[in-house]
Amino acid sequence: MSEFDEYIVHGEPGQKEKADAWQTAIGLQDVDGLKVSAYLLDTARQHIEGDISIDEARERIKAYYETKSGHDAVDEEGDKVSANIAKILSEPSFAFSLVGLTSIHRRIFEDVFKFAGQLRTVELSKKEWVLGGNASVSYQPAVDLREAIEYDLAREKEFDYSSHPISEIINHLSRFIADLWQIHPFREGNTRTTAVFLIKYLRSMGIPATNDMFKEHSWYFRNALVRASYKGLNISPTTEFVERFLRNVILGEKNELRNRDMLVGASLPKTMPQSITTSASKSQIDTLNCTLEELAVLKVIEDNPKITQTDIAKSIKKSASTVKRITSSLVEKGILIRRNGRRNGWWEILT
């Protein structure tokens, strides 16, 4: 059990959202081997229970380290960054742009790095565990960072998520986020920034996503990005591991996430496909021939069959007319049916 599972399982809606944000924020520290202090956990609980605001929680953490002598620098970074991420994840605003990306880095590492929010001016090379501890991904040269980010974001904006089936969307999204990560725009904190940017991006599109994977498997996420970006002798970049991770995030599948499966030189199962498409989710919604918008609607209906179209629209951040079009399309496809009339009825998914 994680620190705040009690709130996620039994808490009020507001408590669940806060606990989820804190658990995700804390879990993301694993990508750099960071931990958080008991003081941070106690402060987070006070915020979850409504005793203090998120800004008060952040100020308490800041004051704690200003007055505490002989503290652990690892704890300090983990605590401050966790509080900053929890605040960002609690906000609905999101800018899909270079400014938005650098703003996320600046806000995550405020009072932690002097270069927070600044594109790096030095070249990077990092020996990776998943590459046997003796090789590094080739990152974007510092002189080309701005152009590379703007190019990737511009290409992503051209992709029409409403016209592709889920399997193609997962593959595309895996490639996009791996390419963005490979640029490595900042001196430190690239994986945590990429993860928060991805979570916010998914939410902005109304994609039904769970943050549990970032909470529990952030190191796997980083290693998967390495394998999607590294090219070496007899080794080609592959998004299969990022896809496995994202299928769990977006579709709720239970694909096993093991870091050792990605280790270069490890004996991988011969039956492992290049694109993970197997399903082990609690339902079979993801096996239907649906677009991303249709999947979002179905996920909401699965959780609450009596939900109204107005509430569906609020949940997936789409207009009421868009939801009406989507539900009509699902009915025409024989995937969805309305039982017992419009006023007192409910939705039934025909899987």
From TrEMBL:
UniProt GO MF annotations: AMPylase activity; ATP binding
Listed EC numbers: 2.7.7.108
Pfam families listed in its UniProt record: Fic (PF02661), HTH_24 (PF13412)
GO BP annotations listed: regulation of cell division
InterPro entries reported for this sequence: Fido, Fido-like_dom_sf, VbhA-like, VbhA_sf, WH-like_DNA-bd_sf, WH_DNA-bd_sf
CDD domains in the cross-refs: VbhA_like (cd11586)
Annotated Fido domain residues: 96-244
Recorded catalytic activity of this chain's protein: L-threonyl-[protein] + ATP = 3-O-(5'-adenylyl)-L-threonyl-[protein] + diphosphate; L-tyrosyl-[protein] + ATP = O-(5'-adenylyl)-L-tyrosyl-[protein] + diphosphate
Full protein name: protein adenylyltransferase
Major enzyme class: transferase
Entry keywords, A to Z: ATP-binding, Nucleotide-binding, Nucleotidyltransferase, Transferase
